[in-house]
Amino acid sequence: MRAALVGPVGIANLAIVTLPEPAAGPGEVVVALRAASLNWRDLLIVEGGYGTRQKRSRLIPLSDGAGEVVATGPGVTAWKSGDRVMGCFHPDWQAGPPTAEALASDLGCRTDGVACEFRVFRQDALVRIPDGMGFPEAATLPCAAATAWSAVIERGGVRPGDRVLVQGTGGVSLFALQFAVMTGAEVFAITSGAAKAGLLRRLGARHVVNYRDDADWGRTIRRLAGGRGVTHAVEIGGAGTLRQTMHATAAGGFIAMVGVVSGARAELNIPVMAMNAFRLEGVAVGSRLTLRQLSETMALHGIRPVIDPRAFALDGLRDALEYLRTGTHSGKVCVAFG
Ligand SMILES: NC(=O)c1ccc[n+]([C@@H]2O[C@H](COP(=O)([O-])OP(=O)(O)OC[C@H]3O[C@@H](n4cnc5c(N)ncnc54)[C@H](OP(=O)(O)O)[C@@H]3O)[C@@H](O)[C@H]2O)c1
Question: Which domain holds residue 246?
């Protein structure tokens, strides 16, 4: 089978190679991958950015893939050949609060990922793809959608009438926007360009502010949110955005700490945080149950993932990662397997 392999780390070392086809052991299934999607972390991992927390040689990258079961090992009762499935981001996190061991089981980092034509999964590391959802759509869900669902629904508890801030037009943020709109919340968004502002509005954002034109966008959002600020923020910017996010957030508000696209280490103004009784909470993707619930809810409500129009093949994985780096994409960048 063909697979992408990186290591020593560095995007220049990413190569497409031929490897033996894997076989299913007891309790395992072989999935023929049909599509994968990229996340910001994949770029970091390919370049060795996870330090000692990642495999640094001969790593098959990417965490998010969808495909078809083609073989089952002894004792497999949950799946049969032909079933359409997506892989869980953390195979060892089935439900409930995470443990250190569960969080260490993420694909495409410490263990091999899905940038390969066939992959073995434990039978409890998969979720069924809802009817009517395609492979590329399903492949966008395991990391970005699960993270957004955890931030907005499970941890944030967003309800009708809440005011939710999302940042940019990347994978996590567009899912967060869609889930917040679904709950009946009023959504506020920031982005860097006019065309992207149009996409955010079409998806249901009521107010959009350009963070490049308005350096004080946090206070602008607060003003737009009736002078009180937003009740929830999904923070994907990190160091470059947290201060403005705190300006935008209402007293008692919830800030889901998700990402670091503008820097990983920020100074925290503790008195501002304490006096406003903010709740800052780290989010680490989600469990298998989270993935099942969000995919079924998306199917029920007809929510479709936003997929960037540029499509890539496995051979073009390096180009796809470079494209992600440009930040010119909207939503999810996908790779289709031939
Ligand atoms: N904790 C978790 O569980 C978890 C899970 C998934 C991802 N993450 C992290 O979340 C972040 C986003 O991931 P992703 O996969 O959604 O990324 P992505 O698809 O690459 O999207 C990144 C988007 O961020 C926006 N952006 C860039 N600089 C910004 C700034 N200074 N202020 C506001 N927005 C800015 C851009 O939107 P515009 O072009 O519209 O400006 C860009 O498209 C990454 O740091 C990733 O590592 C964390």
Answer: 145-282
